[in-house]
Design goal:
Layout: H1 3-13, H2 18-27, H3 30-48, E1 55-61, H4 87-99, E2 104-109, H5 117-130, E3 135-139, H6 145-152, E4 170-172, H7 189-192
Parallel strand pairs: 1-2, 2-3, 3-4
């Protein structure tokens, strides 16, 4: 099977067999890359339009209970200088970002138990009430489905659909790659992801 056929299948079916991935990665040409790039650009424009969105990333804590091998803020990294922003500092970051034209705030931190569901729900709710025209994205590591569902409910009413839609005003991000999570427990995000 030629690479263009594999790229087309990947575009329509969103998956390939292991040996097909291996073929694609080991034999692709400049023309294959250009073709895949053109398809990706068309999909991006169809789903997101031609606008560019700036995201203000607020790294609010580098405390983490986990010890993921790949991560610089892992628990065992004795060289990391730990910090934790107070919610008022997070709100001040949002204020400054808003004044500078940012309309998406990414709250990113390690798995810091101080930022429990109650505290995070209050933070998300306050941001959404203060800046209802802004999106909030969370990068908090592993949490239960129930935790993320509860956080999702904190978005301001009328703020749009949630999670991975063009009108999204609330989304989640993280990694689900088995290699990166291999040092984690069997209840990892990878195992909770839909197959």
């Amino acid at each position: 099977m030629n690479n263009r056929t594999l790229i087309d299948r990947l575009n329509t079916e969103h998956s390939l067999k292991k040996e097909e991935w291996e073929q694609l990665f080991s034999t692709y040409t400049k023309e294959d890359v250009e073709y895949a790039t053109t398809l990706a650009r068309e999909i991006a424009i169809e789903n997101l339009g031609k606008k560019i969105y700036f995201r203000g990333i607020i790294e609010f804590s580098n405390f983490c209970k986990c010890d993921c091998y790949y991560c610089g803020i892992r628990r065992s990294n004795a060289c990391a200088q730990r910090y934790r922003l107070d919610p008022s500092d997070i709100y001040e970051c949002c204020k400054e970002g808003y004044e500078n034209g940012f309309r998406t705030f990414v709250l990113q931190g390690g798995e810091d138990g101080w930022f429990n569901d109650d505290r995070m729900c209050e933070i998300v709710k306050t941001i959404k009430e203060t800046y209802p025209d802004c999106a909030v994205t969370l990068s908090l590591g592993e949490r239960s489905y129930e935790s993320y569902k509860r956080l999702n409910l904190q978005r301001a009413s009328g703020s749009g659909d949630c999670c991975d839609r063009r009108s999204s005003h609330f989304s989640f991000s993280g990694t689900g790659h088995r290699t990166y999570l291999s040092k984690r427990s069997q209840s990892s995000l990878y195992n909770r992801m839909p197959k």
